[in-house]
């Protein structure tokens, strides 16, 4: 048996590289640790290099140790250097409020529901009459009024409005947007009105990126002209070039619930279809031996241009690099190892951006390919059909089913749900979306011939409408998705260990592997049972950080009760994005009854008293002050803290995010003067208290 690291040599580089990146980030390792590890690798490599043949055979493990140490050191250095706060010219080190800042737009403006959005780079700051070059990207939001701002890619604007660092809302279980932005080189954001900035005469553009953006704009204009229906246009845009700004949130949720969201998220599936089409188009070049080199060059050129048009996400780059390796192997008449190609592409991507390791698209992309490679053939051989059409249908289902095996634990961990109808929906959506993708390419190709373009657009509009309708219909079933899944990272590891052991047992009939799979599954359910037991004993108060809104959850065991704005019951996005993650985290479910005693805006739970003061609160003259453990103030009531203390004796005051910040600042000063404890959700995130 040849060891796995001999068959997959890039795995020997990838594993220590990934381990070094993880350790460097979570343990905040300094760059000096990377230097020490690189130096530590030298003795192992030198000793092996200058050994005789007998010693090389005896100590054959030394190069592996040396390479591992060098990769660990390289990973620590790379991760440290890629973090913007560790760079001397990062804007966060040099900027002070009041400085004049110059920004260059890195992309055209995209229209959102209430604003226009664009990514920009911070190029210089003027401080104390000195111009200082800085680096760092910023997300700009422009006020939406009657006319779109006359801004384009490459425009340079100047402003002196204070830059705002990106912060998380701080709600339990919420998405770590600050880390996500940092991993993409973005650390600040800013909302601008027309009077907040000046457009300078100078522009700075790249011919290549200008061409990419013009091409993208042309494709969008063709789709919007010939595809009928808002939802159909939005899906067509996402399907062809990954443009998702027009997608309806409810429609995206339906695609996600039914397990086909990969159809409207540019991934390896789309790039594979484009790669196959390019190979077909350039097939005639195979007739000429002297042009053998031209075919892979043209295929890869168009493939990479398409990748850049779609935004070059981690999953797209993974597929592009893998196809590059495959084409290179074909050019050199060498057949590559799919596992080694996967490891090599992951290694290259992590060298480019080590933080891709935390990118969900990166993780799911490799999990899906690995799962298909491992399990597709065994699953396909479960059934045999003489009819070619049935055989192709079963082959498609085998691919879909095999892809779910390794990706499912990741989906449950990141998205807290598992689609139950994925076999049925993928059976329809995958071939249909592939046909639509080719149809859109045809539409772009014939866009200059108006009658043919109009007919093509109408035809594929109906197909898009039918696909959206089918997905929406499937999502209406209550059993379409298992929602509210919450797994600890260790549980996800146990799930993968179970899948690996079970796979070995099924493929190699190894009884020991079966015993291990049972053990891992038992460990998984043991952790789950312990987590659910803790849930039954929990009693929590959560005051959410939700801008301009009040949201308070009382959680007792598996039940919660929401006290807050009525709009939270109507707006699915606000509820799902801000409140639902917390309820999933704590395994809590809705209860129509309020536990404990309730009197007006006063709640007594488990011996602790919580008073909620808002605009409707009435101050009554009392002989004895009301004692409260927590006092929640929301909706900007007209009160002074000193007057409030005449009727309420509280241990802690919580100001939620429905109050204006200027009023909170005044209240905070009063609390500090009166030596009162306070908590501000807009600054500190959600307030969570065990009752």
Summarize the structure.
This protein has 691 residues and is α+β, with helices and mostly antiparallel strands.
Specify the structural class. Answer: alpha+beta
Low-confidence segments, given as residue ranges, are none
Instruction: Please give the alpha-carbon distance between the first and last residues.
Output: 59 Å
Mean pLDDT: 87
Radius of gyration: 29 Å
Residue fraction in strands: 15-25%
Q: What is the number of helices?
A: 25
**Whole-number tally of structural domains:** 5
User: Major sheet: size, sense and barrel closure?
Assistant: 9 strands, mixed
Number of DSSP strand runs:
24
Describe it:
The protein is an alpha+beta fold and 691 residues long. The chain has five domains: 4-82; 91-205, Beta Barrel (OB fold (Dihydrolipoamide Acetyltransferase, E2P)), CATH 2.40.50; 210-269 and 344-483, no CATH class; 489-536; 539-690, Metallo-beta-lactamase, Chain A. The protein is built from 25 helices and 24 strands. Strands 1, 2, 3, 4, 5, 6, 7, 8 and 9 form a nine-stranded mixed sheet that branches. It has a six-stranded mixed sheet with strand order 16-17-18-20-22-23. Helix 13 packs across helix 14 (338-352), helix 16 (388-415) crosses helix 17 (422-445) and helix 17 runs antiparallel to helix 18 (450-475). The protein starts with a helix and ends with a strand. The model has no long low-confidence stretch (mean pLDDT 87).
